[in-house]
Amino acid sequence: MDIPALIAKAETTHTLAKDEIVALLADDAHTDALLAAADRVRRLYVGDEVHLRGLIEFSNTCRQNCHYCGLRRDNAAVVRYRLEPDAVIDLARKAHGYGYKTLVLQSGEDPYYTVDKLRHIIGEIKKLGVAVTLSIGEKTCEEYSAYKEAGADRYLLRIETTDRRLYEALDPGMSFENRLRCLRDLKTLGYEVGTGSLIGLPGQTLAAIADDILFFRQIDADMIGVGPFIPNPDTPLAAAGGGTIALSLKVVALVRLLLPDVNIPATTAMETIDENGRIKALRSGANVVMPNVTEGDYRRLYALYPGKICVGDTPAHCRACIGGKIAAIGRRVAAGHGFRQKRTAR
Ligand code: SF4
Fold first, then answer.
1. CB of residue 137 inside a 6 A radius of ligand 1
2. Which DSSP category does 160 fall into?
């Protein structure tokens, strides 16, 4: 295929067929042109602002057993923790003090946090005037509805891979159908919905990644987080190869080209495998960064994968560090809540 023509088509029409996406993912000769096109589309549709979301990892306990994840329930090497609701609210107040306008509450699938506990947490945090994003896994529609009524604005639930067989092989006991049901319910309830994929899972093909990108369009996702799969030594995938920064950046770029107005985080996993990974992602289509505002040992214990960055830093240090990096590439930290603005070109 004519790769430069495909890049031009993606930049001007924001549509590509599956085989065209695969061709771009497979091509290594025009990567710079692909990433540059995505950067131009990012600028045109969502501007130079970078939205910071303060990430609170409030429990690393999980009832699920995903093969790729260090928090899986069979991993006895993890020291488990749970923050009490008032401790979560306290972290949120501090994060608000650092200037965060959106807070992301993330945990494993931990039944300790009942609907009542979560309602209390969300309700108190909403009093700060921030947008609240939840990233707490698969729940019933009634539970999602209760969190929404309590004030939650957004929900992150990665599909991880749209290859159903791969999904069900890597997520034992979980069903692809239920994952889709969750995403549908969240959309219907009026959340801003974030999803995304792991890049470089064992057995994942470029065609499957192309399907992921088309799936994001199909469900009209508002946020799309993609990051390289990083094998964790305490999981069944310890010996797997893992994803590369090069392919992950290409996926970020294609997501921006095909879904021009969505929010795309430069993920922490990118920076774990490449010391400049988040900045590279910000220059390849991304417009969001999620600095960690969890404090102390908990930062280290939320170990989805090894080598996670910034585990020894304080929230104040992270805020200043990423702010400096953003300014150094001529971008600026956004002052607003950073909701998706559905739009055509600026
Ligand atoms: S990916 Fe999520 S659901 Fe799966 S084991 Fe890890 S924390 Fe639990």
1. yes
2. B
Q: Nearest C-alpha to atom 7 of ligand 1 is from which residue? A: 108
Mutational test site, ligand 1, from 57, 64, 82, 179, max ligand atoms within 8 Å of CB: 64
In a 10 Å sphere around its CB, with 0-12 CB exposed, 13-18 middle and 19+ buried, how is residue 189 labelled?
Answer: middle
Q: Is the CB of 71 under 6 A from ligand 1?
A: yes
Predicted TM-score (pTM) of the model is: 0.96
Domains along the chain with CATH numbers: 3-333 (3.20.20.70)
**Ligand 1 centroid – CA 110 distance (Å):** 10
Q: Indicate whether 154 pLDDT > 80.
A: yes
Contact 299, 310 (CB under 8 A): yes
CA distance 87 to 172: 32
CA-wise closest residue to 333 among 44, 40, 43, 48 = 48
Taking the CA of residue 160 as reference, the ligand 1 atom at the shortest distance is 1
- Distance between CA 275 and CA 272 in Å, rounded? 7
Tell whether ligand 1 has an atom less than 6 A from the beta carbon of residue 34: no
Read off the pLDDT of residues 22-31 as tens digits, 9 standing for 90 and up.
Answer: 999 999 999 9
Dihedral angle at the C-alpha atoms of 68, 70, 71, 75, nearest 10 degrees?
100
